[in-house]
Amino acid sequence: MKNKSKPILYLLLLNFDNTMKHVQTHFIFLLIALFLFASCGGGEEAPAPVVDTPPDEVVDTPPADDNQDDEEEQEEQEQDPFDIVPSNFTKKVVLEQLTGAWCGWCPGGSQFVNELAEEHPERFIGVAIHGGDRLENATIIGFIDRTFSISGYPSALINRERVDGSFLHFRNTWVSLVERQLRTRQAPLGMAIKTERDEQGKYKLTANVGFTEAAAGGTFVITAYVVEDGITGIAQRNYYSNNANFRGHPYHDKPDPIRDYVFNRVARFNITDMAGVSIPANMARVDRPFTLEQVFDVPSGIRTQNASVVVIITERDTRNRGSIVNAQIVKLGETKLWD
């Protein structure tokens, strides 16, 4: 009995030992699987690695460019010179000559105008206002006649001032009257004007009027019209031709009529009403300009390359007889700054 029980016990122990080895093997595989699962984060994205910056590694930000900021601020503060009103203004003198191609004495008047323009190119503005010929503008000559009562040709308004009881003056007095006006070099107000053409072919006039203390709060009127140079093809009568009383005159040796005569600074059409646009007294200020803007068309037959805009400022008068305080002229399509 004793010898038979030994092999049975041995077999039982051997079987138990093999069972435990299998359990250990399964347990080890289970641990490995759990480790791998935990490493993958259960299918979730692993967190990005954190990289520490060494304490002595400093990244500098470039300092702000103070000069550039100052320049940008200065540019913002800078104004267009067209809008900066100066403290004083140069006085211009305007001579509006009444003339016509039929008028045989009118070339002599034009000669005086040409001489004054050559002598005072920056301060003298001569304008030829025609009546009774192909260059007449009925609106312009009609206003002059109604307002100042034309009594003969050639005659002229000089800054539209009344002298010795008369607004209109004959040619032998023009030079002395203009020279008298030019003795005053400064005016109480002045202008910067520009004309621009848009894509539709229309023109825009912008006139800035600046005032000194002497003119601030005053009552003024602004008027603008267009003049043209270099007009030909119209014969000009000439009473100086071979006239014994005018030997030595520039037109003595020229024919009558002068078929190749050149007409300059001819008033062609008005931009504003000839009576002008009133400047309100509260807009006549030292600290800012009064601005007039007018859009206009140029009539056919006028060569824009030869055209200029004349702008005049007159004192307000109930009969439109205010004298010219100052004036400015600019080529069509160009800008004339303060002077």
Show unreliable segments.
1-5, 9-14, 40-47, 49-54
CATH architecture: Sandwich
Helix/strand structural class: alpha+beta
Helix and strand pattern: HHEEHEHEEHEEEEEEEEEE
The number of domains is 1
| Residue fraction in strands | 25-35%
Question: If you average the pLDDT, what whole number results?
Answer: 86
User: Got a strand count?
Assistant: 15
- Assigned CATH class: Mainly Beta
CATH fold node name: Immunoglobulin-like
Care to describe what's here?
The chain has 339 residues and is α+β, with helices and mostly antiparallel strands. It has one domain: Immunoglobulins (Immunoglobulin-like, Sandwich). The protein is built from five helices and 15 strands. The chain has helices spanning 2-39, 66-77, 106-119, 138-148, 174-182; strands at residues 89-90, 93-99, 124-130, 155-158, 168-170, 186-187, 189-197, 203-211, 220-228, 266-270, 277-279, 290-296, 307-315, 324-331, 335-336. The strands form four sheets. Strands 9, 10, 11, 13 and 14 form a five-stranded antiparallel β-sheet that branches. It has a four-stranded mixed β-sheet with strand order 3-2-4-5, with helices on both faces. A hairpin with an 8-residue loop joins strand 13 and strand 14.
